[in-house]
Design brief:
4 copies of one chain form a homotetramer.
Chain A (H helix, E strand, L loop, with lengths): L11 H26 L2 H7 L4 H5 L5 H26 L4 H14 L2 H12 L8 H24 L5 H20 L2 H4 L4 H12 L2
Chain B binds a DNA duplex through α3.
DNA sequence: GATGAATGAGCTTTCATTCAT
DNA sequence: TATGAATGAAAGCTCATTCAT
């Protein structure tokens, strides 16, 4: 995440804005058509520019993916920080629940994360990008771990891992409509898990 | 009216063997490139035949996928039945553990199941195929639920759902190398979960 | 994610010219091979560009076909209007003769119209296109009907239908070399018909 | 048309029957799917045999077409002969009407005739086949001409040509649904034509 | 003779990416 | 720097025809 320092009001801002518009368009298109259904042309059109304009800001489709995923993790981190900070008790629970809700409400971003890990090609991710994503994920993990520790729970790391795994499992089963098939509700299941696991 | 002059290439093979070779090739290609990245041409080449030969046995990519996934679920069902039947106590635990181990040892088959996520097109799978896969999954779910009930545990359905979700979450994090990043071990985490959840 | 590395080939052309070249190529190919025998690849090659360049201007084969047929009907309508307007007597005869001559001199365009016969697939043409073509044909029909009415002939609608049908029949037999086989001359036959029918 | 002389009752008949079954199947498939939509595989399946069995009796798709068209013309000739012979007056009218009705009731056979004339490929028809079809058509033409002459009408040849042309025109417009668009009825139009032309 | 698996070029269409303007 | 026409490989799938069995 680069911190943009807008210079006066002439050139710097439009550029930044165009970038954001492209990213927003890409997110919209991913949501509507899925990761593979999204084409660069469609993204460009939705962003109100040409493919060339996209390529002058992103090296390709993969970088677009990566940028969106990075932004997603960053937003999650922010929500997580705020949630944990403002919790008046059971910070760990709040943190894990926040993680769960975040992806429950943003299926595309979950899909993006899982997709990028499978690797968008035989070469997988750029090492730089890989490190970047890992760092963001670790930060999220640490925030949750710390919240659990703050609650005085033992083995906070293991609880954080387990909680996130449970959330991911429920989210995947939910998104693939498996949970409905089993007549279960993602939200309720997550609550039940937290009740049990954070005693 | 197009005219082709076939040239002898690959020889005819016993029907069953050719079929198996195509399925094996498809499994390999799906594993390496994902559902969308796998092409019928590549599958054919890997199977040592032409696309026409593939299409004479399978109506298309989806049927190939279905055949492989169905076989996978059926193998899992068999292992599950055997495991639960021969367990001398804690049948539920044995069942859930079997589910977990099955996919831990067969990353491809888990990936195959999760590809449903992206959805192989607008509208998802053929309704027939969808029902078939759902039925297979439900049977697995029922087997585990029954095992938990046999153990005298209350709310066996909810426990089965939660257990499978936890397994899926751990498997996804494991397969995507997240678990290693968090310095956790899938097997240990699953054991810990079962200890806690099946009390 | 497939990657392509475009190599400079044909140069970019003024938009209008490229369009016209593609349409001309399509006309040629449709003429030589029929609607079903014509392939987009062949049309592109004949137009000196790639399939992609064709698809960036036309949504598909049917739109190409529609464009050509619409233009043809529009040209016929123009000629018809002019012929009928400048006729100093026997406007109906002039109109029907114009219709006949138009296709006699443009075998391709007649063939194109008749290919509808086979139907470009189950279900025929796109409803929109169908309406468009029908409207154009009706306008031609009305022009001829009006010309016959102006001549003071009774039952102008029936005469218009019959006259057009006769023309089409002669044209089809002529184009398929049947008329030569029967030792007849299309032009003379049409004249004889008009002599008899427009009394 | 080869005259089959069945030898006793063992081998000769089945062979002939298989041929007829293939031809019948081809006709059915042409009717259902159109000329280009018909595949040799489908024809073979409908005939209850394999593609190989078809190819052992016909050199290819074109020969199948030709055989069916030849049979069609021969049936038309038979119906025509009978109709003209049994007519008690206005033999010419009966003949032309028979020609018209025959194709009105057999759209596929009309399409086949027109299609084969466009030529199923860049090479067009086999010269032998071409001669054969021309001879059959000429015979039909002569039958109608003779019937008109028998009625005492002058210029029977020209009347036969015109009558057939009118029929073909109406049939083509009818089959392409143009006639309905013009709010006309093929049957009535043909009757009106005959009333006028055979005075 | 019959079989039907196999061929492989063909089809229409899409798309990430480039680069002359 | 922006444009967007052009590329051309690749996709899923079909099909007339052959030929080993």
């Amino acid at each position: 995440m680069t911190e943009q320092t807008p210079v006066s009001g002439t050139q710097a801002l439009p550029e930044d804005r165009r970038r954001r518009e492209i990213l927003a368009a890409a997110r919209r298109v991913f949501e509507e058509r899925g990761l593979d259904g999204a084409s660069m042309r469609l993204i460009a059109r939705q962003a109100g520019c040409t493919t060339g304009a996209v390529y002058s800001r992103f090296t390709g489709k993969e970088e677009l993916y990566a940028e969106i995923l990075t932004a997603s993790l960053s937003r999650l981190q922010q929500e997580l920080d705020r949630a944990v900070r403002t919790a008046d008790g059971g910070r760990g629970r709040v943190g894990l629940h926040c993680f769960f809700r975040y992806y429950l409400e943003r299926p595309t971003e979950l899909a993006l994360g899982l997709y990028l890990y499978q690797g968008p090609g035989p070469g997988g991710l750029t090492p730089t990008l890989d490190r970047q994503l890992n760092a963001a994920l670790l930060e999220i993990y640490r925030t949750i771990t710390q919240a659990l520790a703050d609650d005085g729970l033992d083995r906070p790391r293991s609880r954080a891992t387990a909680g996130m795994a449970h959330a991911v499992g429920l989210l995947v089963l939910h998104q693939t409509r498996r949970l409905k098939l089993l007549n279960a509700d993602a939200d309720r299941q997550m609550d039940a898990y937290l009740d049990m696991a954070l005693r």
